[in-house]
Each structure stands twice: as C-alpha cells, then as structure tokens.
Amino acid sequence: MSEEKQEHAIEIHLDRLLAERGMTLTELANRVGVTYVNLSILKNGRARAVRFTTLSRICEVLECQPGDLLSYRPR
C-alpha cells in the first residue's frame, strides 16, 4: 500500500481541547504561528506529519501535554 493511502491509528483531540478552553481554531493558529488550513488538516486527522516545534507551540498555547492532544487507537 502506498504511503499516501495508509491510514494511521492516531486520534487528534484538538476539538475537545479548544472547546474546553473557549478558543477558536483561528485564534490558536494565530497564537501558534501556523496557518488555519494547516491546523484544520491536523484537527481533522488528515495530517501526515507534525513538526515538534508546532506540537510544542500548540501544547504551550493550550497548556497541555502531547498526550492530551494525541492518542493511539489500536486497529
């Protein structure tokens, strides 16, 4: 199977974290310094990769740990 068609087993909990903090995706994008589109791709589970610098910034802004944002869903 090609890399593009492989599904991953990582779930993204960005919606929940944003709701808990009363923050919009636009506000998070501005505060993290990435585009709304890139964060939307991550939020919807379509991202193929995330930079550690971006992950660090998201965790800093949302005051969370990477494990709050990501989880592994066994298939």
Could you give a quick summary of the protein structure above?
This protein has helices spanning 14-21, 25-32, 36-43, 52-62, 66-69, and strands at residues 10-12, 70-72. It is mainly α and 75 residues long. The longest helix is centred in the last third of the chain and has 11 residues, at 52-62.
CATH-assigned homologous superfamily: lambda repressor-like DNA-binding domains
Over the alpha carbons, how many angstroms does the gyration radius reach? Answer: 12 Å
Number of domains: 1
The percentage of residues in β strands lies in: 5-15%
Helix content: 40-55%
CATH architecture: Orthogonal Bundle
Largest sheet, spatial ordering of strands: 1-2
Mean pLDDT: 92
What's the multimeric state? Answer: single chain
The global form is globular
Total DSSP E strands: 2
Q: What do we call the CATH topology?
A: 434 Repressor (Amino-terminal Domain)
Q: According to CATH, what is the class?
A: Mainly Alpha
Q: What is the N-to-C order of secondary-structure elements (H for helix, E for strand)?
A: EHHHHHE
What are the segments in which pLDDT stays under 50 over at least 5 consecutive residues?
A: none
Through-space gap between termini: 16 Å
Largest sheet: 2 strands, antiparallel
Number of helical runs? 5
Quickly give the structural class: mainly alpha
